[in-house]
Structures are given as C-alpha cells and as structure tokens.
Automatic annotation (TrEMBL):
PROSITE patterns: GNAT. It comes from the Bacteria. Pfam families: Acetyltransf_1. This is N-acetyltransferase domain-containing protein. SUPFAM superfamilies: Acyl-CoA N-acyltransferases (Nat). It comes from Roseburia faecis. The keyword Acyltransferase applies. Keywords: Acyltransferase, Transferase. The keyword Protease does not apply. Residues 1-156 form the N-acetyltransferase domain.
Length: 156
C-alpha cells in the first residue's frame, strides 16, 4: 500500500467513500445529514485536488485502487488577536472503505498526515468528531489526539 496525493482519476472512488462517511453521519444525526448525498461534488473535488492548501491523501493498494482517504486543509491561526500565530493541518475527513477496515489503513493515513504536517511546518493536526461517533473517537484517541475544545448545541 502507498499513500499519495489524490488525482482526478480517484474522484469516482472518493465519491463512493464520501457516501460511506455520510451514511455514518446520517445514522448519528438524521436531523442534519441527508442520506445518499456527498459532502463534495465532482467539480469541487477536481478543484481541491489542484489546491495545495487542501491536500487530499489516498491510501492505494498494489493496483492503485483507493482504499481510503484523508481530506486536509492548511489553516492559519489565530482566529482572534489574543492567540499566537501558527499553522494547523486540519483533517476535514478521514475514511477507510468499510470492507478494508481493521487493516491499519486509517493508521497509515493518519501517520502520513502527521508527517506532512511536520514537513509543512505546522504546529498541530486537528479535526472534528461528531458526538456519537464512538469508533472514530476511539481511533483518534489511539492515534494520540486529545480533546482541544468542545462545541455544544441547543436544538430549537
């Protein structure tokens, strides 16, 4: 298996995997997520693949089939003037195909993202996890992530 930047040939497979992630989120929060949709369109993915501030890394097997991905974004901090400036590599989405989970593909993707963050001079790697996605929470804790902040909601 190799980890590489996504290219336009990966778009159909990325869309399939995005559907898998969306279904997980829709199962947790059916009040917010629409089953059968994806977070990005073909056109948006094509633009992101060209954008060095939004790298997409894919785990590919020996036949170059995409088994998983990590959508990332370089983010400049701070959001306010009372914080020290730094760059974060934000994981917008990380997914491993349901049929290949348990083969450490997610771990390899995450390690690659950490290495890329170091190479790019980032201070940290961050991400968000939906409450109720306990398997993702356990995975990221196993990878060494700690809760930085919590967002709370009151549904009207």
């Amino acid at each position: 298996m190799t980890i590489r930047r996504a290219n336009e040939n990966d778009i159909p497979r990325l869309l399939e995997l995005l559907e898998q992630v969306l279904q997980i989120h829709a199962d947790i929060r059916p009040d917010i997520f629409i089953p059968g949709t994806t977070k990005y369109t073909n056109e948006e993915l094509a633009q992101m693949i060209k954008d060095d501030t939004k790298p997409i890394y894919v785990a590919a097997d020996e036949n170059d089939n995409c088994l998983g991905y990590a959508f990332c974004q370089l983010r400049e901090q701070p959001f306010s003037n009372n914080m020290v400036p730094f760059t974060s590599l934000f994981i917008d989405d990380l997914c491993v195909d349901a049929s290949t989970r348990g083969q450490h593909i997610g771990e390899k993707l995450f390690v690659h993202v950490k290495e890329e963050a170091k190479r790019l001079g980032c201070y940290e790697v961050t991400l968000n996890v939906w409450a109720g996605n306990t398997s993702a929470e356990k995975f990221y804790e196993k990878m060494g992530l700690k809760t930085k902040e919590q967002q709370m909601e009151y549904i009207l």
